[in-house]
Write a structure and sequence with these properties.
The protein has helices spanning about 5-35, 40-65, 70-90, 110-125, 135-155, 160-175, 180-200, 200-210, 225-235, 260-295, 295-320, 340-355, 395-409, and strands at about 90-95, 95-105, 105-110. The chain is mainly α. A three-stranded antiparallel β-sheet has the order 1-2-3. Helix 1 (about 5-35) packs antiparallel against helix 12, helix 6 (about 160-175) packs antiparallel against helix 11 and helix 7 crosses helix 8 (about 200-210).
Length: about 400
């Protein structure tokens, strides 16, 4: 598979984030794991297993032609719906939510597969023809499918994943050429429905109001946000040192999952936190560049969607930890503890690598009709009377002779 500079740097950034995540998961959990079961590396071992599985899947996805995913889109969509329904009936509950299915020693989160399935299906649909131009076209079928998936995910409940799906689809619609007015109106409707969903759940309402002023209820709804701010502020410029965090010891809830960035800021300071943000910025740049260089409409939209999925989740998580947005419970891609999230994120990278390697493939046979930027059929020059331009010297002489004969008559 051909790989340019973008692919090589994307691999480097991804591997760096995964390795850094393993180190930070161990740092954030070693003390609590040692106290709980006597094994400081308990969480590290589990995360490492998922990292190996994810890397194997990344290599496999990078070597299989991404265009084969179009045929799998209906199967993935049906499987995602079945799993989302199954998790509501037999799901494993934790922290008041039922989001996980257990398969022996492995634990899987169906909403992670749902995000990838939606990205592939939406890319396939948007590559067929013109993008949605009105709210009616946007509603059927993209809006309806999004409502079904997000509705099932909100029942778990998991607001963060529903927001990530909306961000991903918005990016794909924008790349496909959906008018800004139509896209803005659609996002306005989704935002209104989201606020309604927040208002219906007391704990979501409490999170929203605590985000506005977390210090007002620092021991209640605002406790997690306040402790994250304390952790970030305690790190200073260079941090207190790797493994020396105080917040991770019974102060900051979910220090190894949703709030791991606060531990990064405390132990590695502003320098470490800035490095993490820079890595996600580099990932976004490389992913969008791969999308822009791809000539295949399906690959272009899929690359944009997968990039927005990874970086959108990162932006939501970072904003919540820094107190710039309400808490949503979404992990930091590649870094936070969470097996299914890590595996799916690495699969997304593998697909991006394959798209980058086949960026020019099919350019002569597939035209991007919605953008009008691809020509599959070569244009044939014509003369004033509409005849095809002669292709050889013999044809030139024949045409010239016929014209002289016509002039003589």
């Amino acid at each position: 598979m051909r790989r340019g500079l973008e692919s090589s740097v994307l691999i480097l950034v991804t591997m760096g984030l995964v390795a850094f995540g393993l180190v930070m998961v161990y740092s954030a959990t070693s003390a609590s794991a040692a106290l709980a079961n006597g094994d400081p590396a308990y969480y590290l071992k589990r995360q490492a297993i998922y990292a190996v599985l994810g890397l194997v899947l990344m290599v496999v996805c990078s070597r299989i032609d991404y265009r084969a995913l179009r045929a799998l889109a209906p199967v993935l969509m049906v499987a995602s719906v079945v799993l989302l329904l199954a998790v509501l009936v037999m799901g494993r509950a934790a922290n008041g939510a039922s989001r996980w299915l257990s398969f022996g020693p492995l634990v899987f989160q169906p909403s992670e597969l749902a995000k990838l399935a939606l990205a592939i299906w939406a890319a396939s649909y948007l590559a067929r023809g013109k993008p949605p131009r009105s709210l009616a076209e946007l509603w059927r079928p993209i809006g309806l499918v999004t409502l079904v998936f997000c509705g099932l995910i909100l029942v778990e409940p998991d607001l963060g994943t529903a927001i990530a799906i909306v961000v991903m689809l918005a990016a794909m619609l924008l790349v496909a050429g959906t008018p800004g007015r139509t896209l803005g109106a659609g996002l306005g409707i989704v935002g209104t429905l989201g606020l309604f969903a927040v208002w219906l759940e007391p704990y979501r309402r409490a999170r929203l109001f605590s985000f506005l002023n977390p210090w007002q209820d620092a021991q209640g709804a605002g406790f997690q946000t306040v402790q994250a701010m304390i952790g970030l502020g305690s790190g200073g410029i260079f941090g207190v040192g790797l493994g020396q965090s105080v917040q991770k010891v019974n102060y900051l809830p979910e220090a190894h999952t949703d709030m791991i960035f606060a531990i990064i800021g405390e132990e590695l300071g502003l320098v470490g936190a800035t490095g993490v943000i820079a890595a996600y910025c580099a990932f976004a740049y490389l992913g969008l560049k791969i999308a822009l260089q791809c000539k295949d409409p399906f690959g272009k939209r899929l690359a944009a969607g997968l990039t927005a999925l990874v970086c959108g989740q990162a932006a939501i998580n970072l904003a919540a930890v820094m107190g710039l947005a309400p808490l949503t419970g979404i992990p930091l891609p590649f870094v936070s503890y969470g097996g299914s999230s890590l595996v799916v994120a690495l699969a997304c990278v593998g697909i991006l690598l394959n798209i980058a390697g086949n960026a020019g493939a099919g350019a002569k046979s597939i035209s991007d009709r919605s953008r009008r930027n691809g020509g599959a059929r070569p244009a044939r020059a014509r003369s004033r009377r509409g005849a095809a331009k002669p292709r050889s010297t013999r044809d030139v002489r024949r045409v010239a002779g016929s014209r002289r004969g016509a002039a003589g008559s």
